[in-house]
Amino acid sequence: MTTAGDRLVKVEGAGNDFVLGTGSWARRLSDDGELVTRLCDRRRGIGADGALALVADRPDRIVLVHRNADGSRSAFCANGTRCAARAAVELLGAPTVLAVVTDWATIPATVSPTGVSLELPAPGTVRPIRLAGPERTWSGSRLEVGVPHLVLPVTDLASLDIVALAGPLRRHPELGDAGANVHMIEKTDEGLEIRSMERGVATEVLCCGSGVVAAALVTLAGSPARRLTVVPRSGDRLTVEALGEPPNTASRLTGPARLVAAVEPIFTG
């Protein structure tokens, strides 16, 4: 395997953007939450939804640490994992079929010119939930795809003020101390549209990949279909395939991931 040395790059997957580091930058992003916060600031830093620290464990396996924009460490980020797999192939010379070790699980990944596919473990318990919140009582499902998600079906997705509504919901007492990423979804003729607000990010994100999986598995439950196209705020199309009986099943997520730019910081702090 070739080495990329100490690299800091900007990557994005379906509009979810990250600073990604290898070498000494991987160590710094992994260990220093305050540095991640500074880099992710969209006014005073590079600007990103989070940071990815990438280390080659062996030729066909990489270890990934993900931090949110507020510096907090997250067990899993599906868009970030796809971006990490792409970066491992393009920067580290990894094969196009590889494993990504995350804080949640070791994720098999396949990188192609048009996208990256991840095979994800089953989410486990899917719990129906009703929450009293802004404007209405919300009914949906809580489940974990690496991190906790709250999926709320609606019929007025385009008109909703996601930040005002999802901000309080993601910290609702009934979700426990960890809270949850909040996703509002609406079925369409082509599949599913989704809008998301994540823990650790101050505003609506263009896409949350693990939320896409959570929303798709909940939507596919009770349906003969096993594949769903999901369109996040970015307008990209991601596909989720249930590999068994949804929602409690392993799944395959396929979506875009690309390297945007190399970064040459002019600061050392």
Structure explained in plain terms:
- The structure is a single chain.
- By secondary structure, the protein is an alpha+beta fold.
- It folds into two domains: 7-116 and 257-262, Diaminopimelate Epimerase, Chain A, domain 1 (Roll), CATH 3.10.310; 127-249, Diaminopimelate Epimerase, Chain A, domain 1 (Roll), CATH 3.10.310.
- Helices cover 19% and strands 40% of the residues.
- The chain has an 18-stranded mixed β-sheet that branches.
- Strand 9 and strand 10 (137-145) form a beta hairpin.
- The radius of gyration is 18 Å and the shape is globular.
- 47% of the residues are buried.
Please give the structural blueprint:
Layout: E1 7-13, E2 16-22, H1 24-31, H2 33-40, E3 50-58, E4 61-68, E5 73-74, H3 78-92, E6 97-101, E7 106-112, E8 115-120, E9 127-132, E10 137-145, E11 147-153, H4 162-169, E12 181-187, E13 192-197, E14 204-205, H5 209-220, E15 227-231, E16 238-242, E17 251-255, E18 258-262
Parallel strand pairs: 2-3, 4-6, 11-12, 13-15
Antiparallel strand pairs: 1-2, 1-18, 3-4, 4-5, 6-7, 7-8, 8-17, 9-10, 10-11, 12-13, 13-14, 15-16, 16-17
